[in-house]
Design a protein that fits this description.
alpha+beta; Glycosyltransferase; Maltose phosphorylase, domain 3; four-stranded mixed β-sheet; 14 strands; about 40% helix; globular
Length: about 325
């Protein structure tokens, strides 16, 4: 929706999905001391199961609740809300409840470490120094009982770090950097869906060495059979992570309410890279070279893009110094 502005799709399809999933979270959650809680959930990390207030889950649920309300209000402004309102029996009281829960969703935070806790209990568990585990014992799920994994600070894949990528406006950069440093030490990347996220976030935080290291690991996962199971089929989602590593990681692409944002960074040994995006009906080719980003409008109407926070109107070919 933020990339297309297709309000008709939201009327016909999207609004119903958002409202019904928001209702699910209202049914699943409960209030404790003015905060909305979600108990007995499992976030992205498959080595930590059935916990209360997983940061990623709560963050996603909170956005679901807020966007369900926002879309209904957008439809009202466009004079397109009557049919979906009647079909779903939506009331203003229910929308107010969505907003209340969304704005007061508990997002666990550890003030001692200055990081968002993965959930209510993760930081209270026994830490694990992964450096002392023999290489042949990975992936851990093949050598450790699940209950041992559930009782220790060990992650199979990005969890809170993934939330910081997808919901970056919920935490400032200092918190994200401390969270990254903390969770990196206890993440095994036993899942093929992990290194791409750590690459993207390393690029955002300005650590290009780590970003490139994780990007290489992502790009060569099947080429080098690093997980030892490529014989069973390629890791297609990981391949999507390679694409995101360039576009969202090095390119810094984010789609926000005020438009398309880019924060281009060029790896030290690269001459450049390019990719093409469609935004609000416009097709834009983006080329990043040393100290310069060139945006070319291939078709469609001129569109506004933010380059490292600078507002730029893209029409024909636009060059921006980095």
């Amino acid at each position: 929706y933020l990339a297309t502005g297709d309000i008709a799709f939201m009327r016909d399809k999207g609004a119903e999905v958002l409202v019904e999933t928001a209702r699910l979270f209202m049914d699943a959650g409960h209030w404790v001391d003015g905060a909305f809680h979600l108990d007995c959930v499992t976030g992205p990390d498959e080595y930590t199961c059935i916990v209360n207030n997983n940061f990623y889950t709560n963050a996603a649920a909170g956005q679901n609740l807020l966007w369900a309300t926002k879309i209904i209000l957008d439809l009202r402004k466009a004079g397109m809300a009557d049919e979906v309102t009647e079909k779903l029996a939506i009331t203003d009281v229910e929308l107010m409840a969505f907003v209340d829960a969304g704005e007061n969703m508990l997002l666990p935070y550890d003030s001692l470490r200055g990081i968002h806790a993965q959930d209510d209990s993760f930081l209270k568990k026994t830490p694990v120094d992964l450096a002392y585990i023999p290489e042949e014992n990975f992936p851990l799920l093949m050598h450790c009982h699940p209950l041992w994994l559930y009782r220790h600070q060990v992650c199979k894949q990005a969890d809170t770090v993934l939330a910081h990528y997808l919901f970056e406006d919920l935490a400032d950069e200092d918190i994200m950097r401390r969270s990254y440093d903390y969770y990196e030490k206890c993440t095994t990347h036993d899942s093929s869906l992990s290194t791409c996220v750590f690459s993207i976030m390393a690029a955002k935080l300005g650590d290009m060495d780590k970003a490139m290291d994780y990007f290489r690991r992502t790009a060569t996962l099947d080429l080098d059979d690093t997980h030892g199971n490529t014989r069973d089929g390629i890791h297609t989602a990981n391949m999507g992570g390679v694409y995101l590593g360039i576009v969202a990681g090095f390119g810094g692409l984010r789609i926000k309410e005020d438009g398309l944002h880019l924060s281009p960074r060029l790896p030290e040994k690269w001459d450049g890279y390019s990719f093409t995006v469609k935004h609000m009906g416009a097709t834009i080719n983006i080329q990043v070279r040393k100290n310069r980003c060139t945006l070319e409008l291939l078709n469609g109407e001129p569109v506004t893009v933010f380059i490292s926070g600078k507002k730029v109107k893209v029409k024909d070919k636009t060059k921006v110094d980095l």
